[in-house]
Design brief:
The complex is a heterodimer of chains A (about 550) and B (about 300).
Chain A: H1 2-24, E1 44-49, H2 63-72, E2 77-79, E3 85-87, E4 90-96, E5 99-104, H3 118-129, H4 147-151, H5 157-162, E6 166-170, E7 173-177, H6 185-188, H7 199-204, E8 221-227, E9 231-236, E10 250-255, H8 259-267, H9 283-286, E11 292-305, H10 313-321, H11 325-333, E12 338-339, H12 351-355, H13 368-376, E13 384-390, H14 395-407, E14 412-418, H15 420-426, E15 437-443, H16 450-453, H17 470-480, H18 485-500, E16 508-519, H19 522-525
Parallel strand pairs in A: 1-10, 13-14, 13-15
Antiparallel strand pairs in A: 2-3, 4-5, 5-7, 6-7, 8-9, 9-10, 11-15, 11-16, 12-16
Helix pairs in contact in A: 10-13, 17-18
Chain B: H1 2-29, H2 44-53, H3 60-72, H4 87-122, H5 127-141, H6 144-158, H7 170-200, H8 203-211, H9 215-252, H10 258-267, H11 271-299, H12 301-307
Helix pairs in contact in B: 1-11, 4-5, 4-7, 4-9, 4-11, 5-7, 6-7, 6-9, 7-9, 9-10, 9-11, 10-11, 11-12
Classes of the chains: A alpha+beta (about 550), B mainly alpha (about 300).
Chain lengths: ~550, ~300
Amino acid sequence: MLSRNRWLSAVLLSLVAVLLVVGCGGDDDEGGNGGGGAAAADQTLKWGLGSEFLLDPGLATDTTSSKILSNIFDGLVKLNNDLEAEPAAAESWDENGKVVTFHLREGMKWTNGDPVTAGDYEFAWKRALSPELGSDYAYQLTGIQGAAEYNECENNCNALRDKVMVQATDPQTLKVTLTSVQPWFIEQVAHHVFLPVNPKAVQAAPERWTRPENIVTNGAFKVEDAQPSASITLVKNADWRDAANVKLERVEGRIIVDGTTAVQSFEAGEVDVLDEQLPPAEIPRLKDTPEYELYTGLGTTYYGFNMKNITDINQRRAMSLAVNRRQIIDTITQANEIPAKGFTPEGMPGFEEIVGEGSPWTPEAGDIDQAKEYMAKVQGPKQKVAIVTNEGDPNKDVAVALQSMWKEIGVDSTIRVMEWQQYLEYLGPPPPGAVDLFRLGWVGDFVDDINFLELWTCESGNNNTGFCDKEYDALVEKAKATPDDAERTEIYNQLEAKLTGQDGALPFIPMWSISYNNLERESVKETFQINLLDQVDLTTVEIKES
Amino acid sequence: MTAFIIRRILWTIPVLLLVIFLTFVMMKQIGGNPFRRTERAVPVAIQQNLERKFNLDEPWYVQYALYVKGVFTFDLGPSLVSRDRTVNDIIREHAPKSLELGFYAMLWAIVLGIPAGVIAALRHNSIFDYGLMFFSNVGFAVPSFLVATLLIYYVALKWGLVPTNGWTTWESKILPSFALGLLPMAYFARLVRGSMLETLQQDYVRTARAKGLRQRRIIVRHVLRNSLIPAITAIAPLLGFIITGSFVIEVIFSIPGIGRYFVTSVSSRDYSVVMGITVLTSVVIVLANLVVDILYGILDPRTREART
């Protein structure tokens, strides 16, 4: 018995010893190899996707789906690096007041052999508007005459469907009549809700046409396989109109929901690019690695005021002045966001003209002295405020930081953290009297500032502050009717001034522009780009020799 | 015995009705909007369209009746969030993976936990016994997500032995099932050790030894069977742990199972999926309890007597 015990102990001890040696012998990840100039033999991109995808352009709402859709379907236009519309399936277009006419290329084909026609786009757009489909993004199409009425229809909708003014006047021509002149419409058409679908495929299997065995696409890549919630495999579509310039042969996407696991998967070499899911806690460590990549996003995070409670403009100014955005970004959020200078986000075309030097109320590192000055001017200040925010890193920590910053100017605050859905319901509009400040953000749908500035109209369902200025609303309408970019930018400047300018009402505290932090292997880093709208164009990606 | 089984199966119906009712009430209470994904407010017309499409504009008793009807006709309706799939699709595509995960986890727990408990009892107060109880405590105390992340970091990333995530090759199934099986493993080890130690003190064991039976025959024939009974009864509550524990494991290891879906469907307010998965889980637990009770009857003749 005794000897057996000894033997057993010896085995166990040596096992432990082996484990320790192997574990401690672990080395750091190899530094990336320099991206060479030559193309790799195997042009397969392994992509770690952050969420489930939905392959229906009419129904998809998340950016992961959007990234895939814009590469398997061919839209009329696409956005170039300067976010201007470029010809895609449409080789040209004419803008004549409210009428926009797209001219499609000839000879384009669906993967089932059908020719791609303007009728496919008409079908898809009307489908996205149809009340039966209940598309979340139908609102993007309501700039078209007859669209809103069709979308809101309750019965006998087919008559209204025919009144939607998007018509395929011939197989190569799509005529669109808008409700008013909308200078940004062409850029908007790059959104995935405007992508075409194959009418035959959709009608043959309305609930199941997106399955890999049924799906019919017309883009640069086609779906070889898709496992729900697990993976998707795309292969190059050799029949695509510009296939000669597409370098990638294959894209293997696998869904990795958890941020930490995604980073580990990348470090283990299982995927070559991620989908911006870096956990904030890991960013400081990853920032200095060669695979780290930072992109600006078209979005602004802000803390809104309940203007019914915080009525004095000087208190709002003081509270905004007290915020040290730089400190919060450097020590709490750590995602390299850009401190906000106004509501319009960095990267918005015309940013310099619209925002100018920036709001006097948003100094990057805060200005406690000035904040105290303004606070002193307030008659009957609200000294106890209730902050409410939604769950998730790092929202609570940011709220705590704000709490201490506002304490310095004599404002005590309580923090309440709510679950996302309940939070959204809670905020209304209008928000309940119990809340004074709330954290929200806005991410742009298309690249024109009207998308941001029209949030603050009196009737906007996205205006939870209670800010209502008839002049502001009138200016917004004026901007919508101004086709000239330079003139419109002037109006945007006035609108921004009404919000965050010297005499602005400051219904919210702009915090920062959002950023996308990603990991990309050096073999692919140069060509894999995420644009402001969180889109990736796989036709420009090439894997280099490493 | 058959009457017993039939009676138990019939009991599942009122249980299901109660579960559906409670789930329904709770989902209504927590509010939220299944059609709102981001900060962007849903335009009123679209909200109305969607509510009409999914019968959410009907009075609550009509909605409840529709759910009950759906459950008993096995048509659990469309998903409110995964718009190209029905709840049946989701269950059919994802439940098997979770069942597999749970099965392997239980297998780890039984194959490692029970023998460990037996050996610890036989080598009572030895270094093995103390070592085992130490690891068992670790298994209880350390949360599964921490263990899972550590395992991925060391075994998958540093040593490169297995993939870091997914549920595809057999290698990818090792870590997640092990991580999920850790707590049941610890539980079994403790349980079996305790009940064996107790059984070994029993009079009939002394008698058997006095009769001259060999140690091994005593253990296998007499002691083990009695010691395992508490372990068998523990399977049912452990199954509950495995089902809920799988949510975390599935998220961390990116396993496309039903657990992950369940958690996300609650936060995104996908009512039909929540209802469908809750019902499925209840059925599984009720059936598992039934199987355990039958096993119990087989193992312990005293229970069998009591039932007939």
